[in-house]
Write a structure and sequence with these properties.
14-stranded antiparallel β-barrel, 344 residues, 4 helices, mainly beta
């Protein structure tokens, strides 16, 4: 176990000086819309959407990596002819390992959703932009160095031999992202969506002691809901492919969704209640199952990753635990509020 921890620390120290950083990710990528694509802002049924995500990973190898995210978004100017706008705020914080390497991002998203359905409000093309600040910090106190080893243990009173080369403990920069999104609902019970996004379009410099450009991240994603058994249940497939420099991964899976209570146009779908469960695969890395429950605009879901990569021995097959809590709110009493999109 000591050797494993040393390898983890060594891997981190090496990657800190290379510009091959990989962003945080959620297994429930479809439940974190503004970290998936800025064009997702405001494309949902309702007036206000709030989401919180939490993920804990690699606790069996080192100190657990913890990621927290929160977002708030809404459609605006919904009676605008030919489309509507979406506005969103999102935040995430990731704390990794013994060094407490922390990445914090605050961002504002603005999207325009063009109605290409001829006023039917069921077919949209969207363009979104996201801008904000990204901050990174590190705590060296919990790390140990080779010259601190005295034969019996690490002497923290001895300064690291390369202390002058380590650099600062924090850095921040402007971060710009953009994305495209497509949404089509051929019926009330069936819908499809897809998108392409590019995060860190300006490649912000996040190096502590030398220039280290944050690599652009390209994300291709899609999903939908296909009604079966006369609308009493549905299949909801989802996929995402992410490429960021040499780092890449693909998640694919689907859930079986069963409606305990059907939606109603008179309450603008707010009384809908369902449960869903389904398997997902992160190619070459992990498998996981997502379980979800939703009622009257409140949605909760949980998942757990089972590692199947080369690290499965070190991690004892354990991966990441993840939970999401979301809420959609209708602020007006009437269901006829201009554009009304029934979205996942």
């Amino acid at each position: 176990m000591i050797k494993i921890k040393l390898l983890v620390v060594l891997s981190f120290m090496l990657s800190a000086n290379l510009f091959a950083q990989q962003d945080v990710h959620f297994s429930q990528f479809f439940s974190s819309p503004l970290t998936l694509n800025p064009a997702n802002a405001g494309i949902f049924d309702g007036d206000l959407r709030a989401i919180m995500n939490y993920r804990s990973q690699w606790g069996s190898v080192s100190k657990a990596y913890a990621t927290t995210a929160a977002s708030l978004d809404m459609p605006v100017l919904k009676k605008l002819g030919g489309g509507m706008f979406g506005l969103g705020l999102n935040f995430f914080k990731d704390v990794a390992g013994d060094s407490k390497l922390s990445t914090v991002n605050y961002a504002l998203s603005l999207a325009y959703h063009l109605d290409i359905s001829g006023g039917q409000n069921n077919h949209f093309l969207s363009l979104g932009f996201q801008g904000g600040m990204i901050q990174r910090s590190i705590a060296y106190d919990n790390l140990t160095w080779d010259n601190q080893w005295n034969g019996n243990g690490f002497d923290r009173q001895v300064l690291p031999s390369n202390i002058d080369e380590i650099g600062g403990t924090s850095v921040s920069a402007l971060d710009i992202s953009t994305g495209l999104h497509w949404y089509f609902a051929p019926s009330d019970a069936t819908r499809f969506n897809g998108g392409l996004s590019m995060f860190h379009a300006n490649s912000p410099d996040m190096g502590f002691n030398s220039e280290s450009k944050l690599l652009r991240k390209y994300t291709l994603h899609g999903g939908g809901e296909i009604a079966i058994t006369s609308g009493e249940s549905a299949i909801t497939p989802n996929f995402v492919t992410v490429i960021q420099g040499a780092n890449k991964y693909t998640d694919i899976g689907a859930e079986f969704k069963y409606f305990l209570q059907s939606s109603s146009k008179f309450t603008n779908y707010s009384n809908e209640m369902y449960i869903s469960v389904g398997p997902y695969l992160r190619w070459g890395d992990a498998t996981y199952v997502v379980t979800r429950f939703s009622w009257s605009g409140i949605t909760a879901s949980v998942s757990y990753d089972f590692n199947i990569s080369d690290l499965s021995t070190a991690s004892s097959g354990g991966g990441g635990f993840e939970v999401m809590l979301g809420y959609k709110m209708d602020l007006s009493s009437s269901a006829a509020r201009g554009h009304s999109v029934k979205f996942q």
